[in-house]
Design brief:
The structure is a homodimer of 416-residue chains.
Chain A lengths: L8 E6 L1 H4 L7 H9 L6 E7 L4 H12 L2 E5 L10 H9 L3 E3 L1 H14 L5 H4 L3 E3 L3 E3 L8 E4 L11 E5 L3 H19 L6 E9 L3 H13 L5 E7 L2 E9 H15 L3 E3 L5 H12 L3 E5 L5 H7 L8 E7 L2 H8 L3 H7 L4 H15 L3 E7 L14 E8 L2 E9 L4 H20 L1
Parallel strand pairs in A: 1-2, 1-3, 3-8, 13-14, 13-15
Antiparallel strand pairs in A: 4-5, 6-7, 7-8, 9-11, 9-12, 10-11, 15-16, 16-17
Helix pairs in contact in A: 2-7, 3-4, 8-9, 10-15
Chain lengths: 416, 416
């Protein structure tokens, strides 16, 4: 672990729903990514329930951290006690802030809500705190600068609202500018992430792992995702460049992205640049391939249509697959994948067609075609059709992830 | 907050990738949901980086908890130090376990990996620990019973592997049976979740909130999701029944699920029972509606086909939408949505057809058809076609969530 990050950062998330497992904690990830470019990283994170547990979490963190972010507990309900506990713990008075109150009243009026005592509590501000106005909710955020309290020593303390759509713009627009003033400049540590398709984690590590570990000052991380390995390197510029040379030489075209873009974004960009078009014909992936492609803004410039031909009849009628080919080879076969891709390409008059047919499960596997089998075909204008067979025995969603990843990767490789 | 959960539970997650924001913490949610039926809930959760930080997190938690779950840090790399730090902290020897080593060797051989010193370290077991074999990876889990160490007092301690596909089956199959022995019976506290469509959180609260809060011993939670509100109640059986009566009377058919099933599962079940079939025609939702439907195991019995007609040409050719209707009313219109649904139903010979056409953004809005506008049509055998217009101005993925939720809800209502 590099020791270049001198300020200790703690994130405290309040929320009973997090501890009951109803909601995933998205704040930690968001805050971590926002502060990283400043040379900061989160050293520790805690989740506590709504209510008085915030007090002990905050008390023990005050001693350990230079910067603390607290999320949640600023709202109007009785369980929202972050503001009060913080003030008490730091020996600060809560003062009613008329400007904040006016903003709350305006917001309530525009929505036809009436003001209650609970609502007004959100206008209480610990003495000395900077108010961070909330553009998307009632409760403002609060910032207490380090050593601004009656304590001998206190860290920089940010109290932030719980809902992500309130916290996120507040963080980007109001918290980051304050952090830029606090954090000493000059940390040249950067992070790069390489997204790699078609190779397992152990193979990636075997090809380049040892040589990367040989570079002084490089911190290395692998993250395996369905059909993908993300390789993260952290270090100073010269070390990062040295590492990049090793990665490029060792992995070559398997690296599909160096800027965070996912596989569908890379594919859509390549097609857009080449002014080429795509159609998809899906059986086992059930629309997920089309969904991934159409999740990319601007996809409509290259994506013409998708056909989800679940039934054999739909394969025949919409894609013109010969019913005899289906009965002879089975719907999950090299021949049907090929006919689906070629039929779809012709129907939509597209440059490329991708087709999938397979057995997602949980039922339906046979000894000849075990669960997780999928045939993927790529038909292209002026080229012969490629068909590959994969086996992805897994749950239904992971199967869809893996099969669509393999399909997009087949198309990407053909565009290089 | 109810005080019926007497055993304090702490979850400690190790993982630099969590603190860098590369990965969301799914372990907390999984563990919380698994232990809830036993009357346990997580009182506190901590995340620390890979490496020695586990030591202080564990040390401070030993005093506070009766049950501790640690995830991660059991693997072969140098940053994996959970096992060693735990043993040292509790004053236990690490003993090399021949059975564990044999399992690791067998697994390595079957995958063509060679054994290294690092790998063998995973066979070290603190004295007195119960080994929890790992069906999906090398490193076994470890269980140390309360007060089985040289400390005066120590909690039940579970060390679990980091990858979810290793941890989850281990937890369900091996950890839960141990917990059932540990946890005193008789806690009659239950949890029920009601999933509600077509009403906002504030409306739900207005209709039933006050009356639910009037029931003694009920803990209430709302969770707003795209196009849905989840209402969670926790309490003892009689209070839960009382609450359920209020919810049923107040919300009626807006409650689409009482057993956790999502909207697509509910719709597929209704169609399956009625032996009816579905086809979808999508423009702005780009395959996401088909994806949601086909994510339900058994969907192939009712889902015939999906047509993603992004281009006007595809709408005309595949769905037989009259090009004059498109040029007269625009592709995003009541008339085109209707024609898409009716054309798709005819093409696939289905009982029902759902169609979507709208403006997902980020570009493409006009004053007449602002960003987020979507027309949704439901065509049904022997009934007149329904068309509704919604506006969901949001990011592309949220737009898809909201539009498909509205479409599925239209279908569900027509099946009641």
């Amino acid at each position: 672990m590099l020791q270049r990050f001198n300020l200790t950062v703690i994130v405290i998330n309040t929320g009973t729903e997090l501890l009951l497992g109803d909601v995933l904690n998205a704040h930690l990830s968001f805050i971590a990514r926002e502060i990283f470019p400043l040379g900061l990283r989160v050293d520790r994170q805690l989740t506590v329930p709504d209510g008085p547990a915030i007090r002990s979490a905050l008390a023990e963190s005050l001693e350990k951290a230079e910067i603390i972010f607290v999320t949640g507990g600023l709202g109007p309900t009785t369980d929202d006690v972050t503001r009060e506990n913080t003030a008490e713990l730091l020996g600060l008075e809560l003062l009613h802030d008329a400007t904040v109150m006016a903003a709350i009243a305006t917001r309530a009026a525009s929505r036809g809500f009436r003001l209650t005592d609970r609502t007004s509590r959100q206008a209480d501000v610990p003495e000395g705190a900077t108010v961070l106005p909330n553009a998307n909710g009632s409760a403002p955020g609060l910032y207490l600068a380090a050593n601004s309290t009656r304590q001998n020593k206190s860290p920089h303390l940010f109290l932030l609202p719980g809902p992500p759509r309130e916290l996120q713009p507040m963080f980007t627009n109001l918290v980051l500018p304050i952090l830029r003033e606090i954090v000493p400049r000059g940390s040249a540590v950067g992070r790069r992430t390489y997204r790699i398709a078609g190779m397992g984690e152990s193979l990636v590590e075997e090809v380049i792992g040892e040589r990367l570990l040989g570079i002084p000052g490089i911190e290395l991380g692998y993250c395996a995702r369905p059909g993908e390995v993300d390789l993260r390197i952290i270090g100073e510029q010269p070390a990062l460049d040295q590492a990049e040379a090793i990665i490029t030489a060792g992995l070559g075209a398997a690296v599909f992205s160096r800027d965070g873009r996912n596989l569908e974004e890379v594919v859509i960009k390549l097609l857009t640049e080449r002014k080429q078009t795509l159609v998809v014909a899906e059986s086992c992936t059930g629309g997920y391939l089309a969904h991934r492609v159409t999740s990319v803004p601007g996809a409509s410039a290259v994506f013409l249509a998708g056909y989800i031909t679940y039934s054999n009849e739909a394969k025949a009628r919409t894609l013109n697959v010969d019913p005899r080919v289906i009965s002879e080879h089975g719907a999950v076969s090299n021949e049907v994948a090929r006919a689906m891709a070629e039929g779809a390409r012709k129907e939509a008059k597209a440059t490329f067609a991708l087709a999938t047919t397979g057995i997602a499960g949980p039922g339906g596997g046979t000894s000849a075609r075990p669960l997780g089998t999928v045939f993927i075909a790529l038909a292209a204008h002026g080229a012969s059709t490629l068909v590959e067979c994969f086996r992805f025995p897994s749950d239904r969603q992971t199967f869809k992830e893996l099969a669509t990843q393999a399909a997009l990767e087949m198309l990407r490789r053909s565009l290089l």
